Amino acid sequence: MLACGGSATGPAPSTPRVDFVDGAIEPLLVRGQAVVIEGFGFGDSQGTGAIDFPRLGGGAVLAPVPAGGWSDRLLRASVPDSATSGALTVTSADGRHLTATVHVLPHVAFDPTTLTWQSRPAFPGAPAGVALAAASQPAGSGLTVAVYAAGGGEPRGGDSSIVPDSAVFTAHATPGGAIGPWTRLPELPAPRVYAAAVAANRFNSRLNGHALYVIGGVDSSGRARATVFQALGSADTLGPFTTIEALPAPVAGAMAVVRRGRIYVMGGADSLGRPQTNVFVGRIGLDGHIDGWFVEPSLPTPRAYGGGVVQDDRATVFGGLTDSAPPGGGLDTLHQRLATADSAPTSLLSGFFTGGWAPAAAPLVQGRSQFATLPLGDVILIVGGVYAGAAGNGAETLAAPVSGDSLGSFAGPVGTNTIFSLGGGALVGAAGIAWMDGDGTGHGLVVGGVDLVSRERRAAVWGF
User: For residue 452, which of 369, 380, 375 has the smallest C-alpha distance?
Assistant: First the structure.
């Protein structure tokens, strides 16, 4: 199913126009990345058509269009290395000039060897199984980044039980990766722990506003739910949460990603703690609702509390639990944990899967679960979790290279220091996010978790 129209009050369907770029109204793009343009009236073949970005220093620069990348309603191209923010122009095959505003960031390679963890303001809520998300938007020559933390739980007796919370907090990141104090927002309609969270705005979706989504999670009875909570608001605050379109099945500990205006929910555990193979995709609508949750090809291996990424034409999941476990995955090191990965082709143009999943090259040297996943462009970090040697901090942070749609093997440990060495413990079930400054520099944050050794909760926040 393809998006091909604006709002009911927008142009008539026959009017040539650009609707969305990379699934968003005013996308944040990075030089060198692939980009998709949705609209109408581009022409069935490229002919003399072209896509131009504003050029650094003035003028315009032509964006390369691959073979098969031009149709009347969808275009595919790459952001030129000399592109900058401003008005992107599509010249249609019949000579029309159609424009859209884009925000272009430099491509800055992240060097994992220079990663240096620093303490951030402590988290004031229940710190285990927090749902964490970040939303970026342009501000002058830079970006403002809002961090949202929803729900979580308080462990009781190690991993024997956990009490879910409904509190929601926000903090603002500053250039350089620091964050300000946490501010309380309206609560969730019901307590949730080990839910997923994503944030949407006009810069990563079709929503002309701001929204936070809290997806699935474990409720106060200890069972996973299919609920999706949504709060609308501004970059600074959110209104009350409401319940919107539910997932087709209950899930907790899923791998959830927002990419090009769509939310991908992959794997996770059901209401009895059994890892699942379900994959759901929902597009964020013009009003912030989900335009239906589509059931996509199932994973070949059940997995929960692992990691996942959606790239241009491929989705990949890795690690995680395959055994039934208590909420959050527990601290039992005897549970079977996966070192394997599965991947499936997706369409850059439609966002849907174009084929089934299959085993991918194993990115982990040993089974690992309950880690934080931090995507940083051409590098993905995983932090903490349960694995052989975790109690002694054998490999706290690992890094894997990303090249196009290929995910390399995780290696390490990386960084100039460790959370463990700073007194943070051997973290299990911490939440993680990553974002970029306006100059393209990558940053990350890890919140909460449980110390595998002491089995005590950790409310500390670490960043770089």
Answer: 369
